[in-house]
Amino acid sequence: MDLRVAAYGIVTDDEGRVLLARWIEGRRVAWTLPGGGLEEGEDPETAVRRELREETGFRIETTGLLGIHSRVIPASRRVRRDERKVPLHTLRIVYRAEVTGGELRFERNGSTDMAAWFTLDEAAALQRVKLVDIGLRMAGLLPE
What we know:
This is NUDIX domain-containing protein. This protein has 3 helices and 7 strands, in the order ββββαβββαα. The chain has about 140 residues and is α+β, with helices and mostly antiparallel strands. Strands 4-1-6-5 form a 4-stranded mixed β-sheet. Strands 3-2-7 form a 3-stranded antiparallel β-sheet. The longest helix has 13 residues, at about 45-55. The chain is globular, with a radius of gyration of 15 Å.
């Protein structure tokens, strides 16, 4: 079994909108929480700051650990065909974070191609990965 540890951020603005990134490497294009995999030896908080900067252009600071979500993806459901030999265990560390600087911009040549702010109602209408709702529940922004 492969293991992937990743860190993601729930970032909201003064209007209560949530920051999402559009993931383009999955089975379908879908909105997700900004964040991603830890590099070897990287601290999760460092990873979420790096990933948010890469995917959205914003500098952030974490304000709290919301939780860890664990999921095992069967080999047959893995995204990349060359990785479909063994299951993937994903550990997704979700932080609450706030913007401290930077400007909204889109990632180039990455796993996402754009980022945007959405109200919770707008986010609910998007094609999105399950992690969005999981993270919003962790943050108390969606009912359990």
